User: Fold this.
Amino acid sequence: MQTRRFLAGHPGAFIALLSLSGCVFPARSRPDWIPAQVDRRLALDMPTWQFVEPNGVRVLVVPDARSDLVRVDVRFAVGSIEDPPGKSGLAHLVEHLNFSIRVPGDHKASVSERLGEIALYTNAYTTLDSTHYQALASRDRLGDLIAIEAARHSTGCGGLDVEVFEREREVVRNEVRQRMGTAGTQITRLLLDALYPKNHPYHRVTGGSDEELAKLVLDDACAFLQGHYTPERMMVVVAGNVTLDEVRAATARHLATLPARPSLPTTSVPPARQVHQSLELEADVDIGSVFLVWPLPPQFSRDHLVTMLVARTLERAMRKKLLHEPYVSGVDVSRIGGVRAPALVVQVALDDMNRVQEILDRVWAMRTDAGRDLDPERFQVEKAQARVARIEEMESLAARADALSDFEQFHPQGGAVLGELQQLDSISYLEIRGRIESLLNPDKSVVLVVRPGNEKKATDRAVVRYSPKSHDDRQGRAPIDPDEARRPLPVNSAREQFPPAWRLELANGLDVILWPHGGWPVVRAELILPTGSAMEPVEQAGLARLVAEEMRPSIARVHPMDQWVTAEAIGSFLKQGIVYQSFVDDDWTVFRAVGVSSDADIVVQGLESIVRTGTFFPEDFGSHKSHLLKLLSHPRAQARIRYLLELNQSLYGVGHPYARSGIMTHETITQIGIAHAESFKDRLLYAQDAVLVVTGAFDPHVLEQHVRYAFDYWPSGLPTVRAIPPVAKRRQPMVIGLVGRDEPTLALQVVFPAAAGIDSRYPARLVLEEMLDIRMQVIRERLAASYGLSVSFSPAIGPGQWVVEGELDAARAGEAIMAIRQELAGLRAKDAEFLSDFARARRAVVKKLLVENNSSEATMRKLSFLARFRLPLDYQSSLVQSVASLGPDAISALISDELDPQQEIMGLHGGREALERAFQVAGIQGIRFIE
Assistant:
């Protein structure tokens, strides 16, 4: 089951021209010249070619010459609704097994291993209605990706054995425990029960139950593959820097040779049940909730677009009318069910469950209130935001492949994304007003009241226990010569970014980076200000986040000569549906805007005006504070805060600027008033050491004028002083156990401190990060004790950190922790796999660095990174050469310095009994428990 969130509208959508007050900005006015006009024509084109191979395989080609990449996605029109009775989770398990198939070749590697050699990214997902496989690689590997897909589906069950099946079945069980093992699962299943009768195909969750998963055998998977994974159900989407002839040649050589065979019948999906029901449940939750659910029209239809706009309107109205109430903790609108019979879910979280009937009465009243409050101007903003969000989303190759697969499977005659945008434009204000009342029909709703309590659902965990092999199964990997690790890796010079980025510094010190291209019509701007949560007073932790989230557009702070320019900039920004976001980390506060290319000037000028004039309205600010204080007052939230503080203080040392930054508590939020927010916000508004990055489709000559017009008169300020000391060396590791709910998984974090900034050892850190990722795969691929662990190196202006984290099977967490420590010890000791792992990791890093993904989003991430650490724009070229010339000794020295076992901080979160058992099995003593 997929649950999707709706993009909430900007909270300050209407601008009041307030009476002028004192101005914090200097009296210096904007330049007296007018910037050049931006071309308002929006060129939105997504050429697509289609053809069908004689065996029934459908192929869609989406050319995009902006990058070196190609994406090959394979969609099968089969999902978990095809699970046979009593075998729930089979479709999802088959998805996993399709990566474990060993295909013919010199070393008979698995599909996953072969993809790992050539791809930059691989993944897959299963929904109720379909199964979708993804692979991204450099464009020259198109033929290899197609060949692997053909080998995967021609080999099928012939490439699987019982040992592999049982391991992957355990991995899937871990995924289900992680995703569906909480009290929320009980709520979701009850809603599904109410919406869909027991014989309805959506009366299930995609992952299945643990008991039924544990009973599945290899023959079940083989029968599913044979009956459903047929060429006529197979759709291949090739997106990227390719031509139609190249794709035709690759599919004709590999996929067209798959023999056609009949498919099992597909399951039809009737509408959801439309009968009012009222249900009540006691669950192990901190805050009670009222859930209201209504059936929706099928996705990818005009009717569904209308209801999605209604949902946006409803969410905005409910937030406006309910969040200020002291007994309401939150409002959320989402979607559940499958594509052909989805449902809308509205959740109102309540601190006072005696107010349930009052909330219901107020929601029913909104049938008329929401429509009455929706004026034409507000509706145009909502529609513009939906339009921009859809266009922005479609820039990535991944989103295009997903969307085209969806349209081809569920609505092939609908004109795909361009047709959807045309339908969106055709929806009128009066149509939305009329649909609000019909959608919120009490007679067709499911009402579920969830009250906090200690009642726990009996676990459905099966008694089947997985026993991993005693040996480490690494022989299936592609062979690699360990001597390669001792030689520099030959590489061609990194391709210069095309077109090149522009970098300029304004007279006031603002660093500006512009990266223009003529591709997808999206513009992104990030204003990166060098003041983060590490610079907030310790007694007011959370202040930086409150400031960034609560700033509202206003002209009350604007110089009189500038007020109308500012009002026009902000008004146009909102009316054009430009997406506005803000976020804060230890070192930076970032304001982001995303719009279409024909609004490039509005994106830049509106972002500047909102940040500069942003102020704090007492009612909104007080409501936000009250909401945070309610959340922070719950015992489990307070325990989580104590855990984070203990972990950070153990990592950095008590009194370090990073030890408490951003960790808000009930006490620190209480200490924050509007005056503090205004003062902190005023510290942001200086150009010195700040950075503006703009990427996307725009004319750089024109946009440079708009940047100068918007920012040239900002005050310079003084250079930012960051007094961030290094981490003091610990004499022993620290282990923290956070006692929480008794759930089927335990959340693990293993953290080590690292040096500050980006220094000469950064290339070695990239390779070590990849080596750690290779090592941590043993927890999933051999032990099958986790759905997976992630590894990351996070640099900062001050000390960075290494983090290994993920969910472990509670019953086998101790075994997994022992394996993690053994793998780390093997790296420190340069064990037998060290050189091979190093060679593989170095290859992988170079491969990623040599490929250019010239989407505005990917380029923004890269340029933002360069800007924050004051790196030159050609840094990546030198980085490739540095990585290629690295030797294993550089990694060993880095491991000795930054993965010292005495510096390890381990945190484990879960039920008390499971924590104690895990630590006992792992042989760990001296745990600091937090409850």
In short: Residues 1-23 have pLDDT under 50 and may be disordered.
